[in-house]
Design brief:
The chain is mainly β and about 260 residues long. Helices cover about 0% and strands about 35% of the residues.
Length: about 260
């Protein structure tokens, strides 16, 4: 998630989820001056504007118990992007490896290899230390084809606009449910992504994504309308068949581990 203007930090006066201390302790409400996605042949006009504060929050689902150990190992045909040791799969950046974990800095982590349709596994952890602003609490994102963002965010502690919460297709589609764990706890994304199809400079089909967050379905064959941009509604335009992945650098020390991908094309 790229943010240009930030609201002051708000400490809520009560915990709406009393059984989960600290949940939604902070708030980053959204905007009333952003555009709506207009209707196209692929989807109707949007009901809510981009980052609309009135868009309903995804319902809360408690994540499965976890002991924090590594999740799904890479199958034999996977491209292992990070195995706990080397950043060789990525372009030069300011991330560091600490105890088998990539700690993201200000630079985005861009793969040297380009990908299209894929199955992907990624484990991530938001920091326990409080960010300098609510819009940067565990703020990062997985960008498929370098432009379609699956949001990483501390949606346990911070109630952000729905299309910016963890597991959202950023600025477009909130997750079906909020299954975020507490800061400092390991979480997982399992993704099946189908790249868009273009013919003779025209869009034939939109990109489509299915996501499990901590083993729970949060995006179900969701169409991606176009590049995911802050406060912007931009329809898709043709681009290369394969493009790099990147993990967004947002100046927030999000941790990454067990990152692998299986190309499907």
């Amino acid at each position: 998630m790229r943010c240009g203007v930030f609201f002051a930090m708000l400490i809520l006066t009560h915990d709406a989820f009393g059984e989960e201390p600290g949940r939604f302790k902070y708030e980053y409400p959204g905007y009333n001056d952003t555009p709506f996605y207009p209707a196209t042949k692929f989807y109707p006009a949007a009901t809510y504007r981009v980052h609309d504060p009135n868009q309903p929050q995804p319902p809360r689902v408690l994540p499965p118990n976890s002991d924090g150990s590594l999740g799904t190992p890479a199958p034999s045909d996977a491209v292992v992007l990070f195995d706990g040791t080397s950043l060789d799969a990525f372009e030069e950046n300011d991330a560091v490896v600490e105890n088998g974990v990539i700690v993201i800095g200000g630079d985005s982590l861009l793969t040297k290899q380009a990908f299209g349709s894929c199955q992907l596994h990624l484990e991530w952890r938001t920091p326990e230390t409080l960010a300098d602003r609510t819009g940067n609490m565990g703020n990062s994102g997985l960008f498929l084809m370098d432009q379609y963002e699956l949001q990483i965010f501390d949606s346990y502690s911070c109630k952000i606009y729905a299309d910016g919460s963890a597991g959202a297709i950023y600025a477009q589609t909130p997750p079906l449910v909020n299954v975020c764990r507490k800061p400092g706890e390991w979480q997982s994304f399992d993704v099946v992504f189908h790249a868009p199809v273009f013919q003779q400079g025209e869009v034939v089909s939109l990109p489509e994504i299915t996501v499990l967050h901590n083993g729970v379905l949060i995006q179900d064959r969701t169409q991606i309308k176009g590049p995911t941009l802050h406060k912007t509604a931009r329809p898709i335009t043709p681009h290369a068949e394969k493009m790099p992945l990147h993990i967004q650098g947002h100046g927030c020390p999000v941790g990454i581990r067990n990152f692998w991908i299986r190309p499907l094309d």
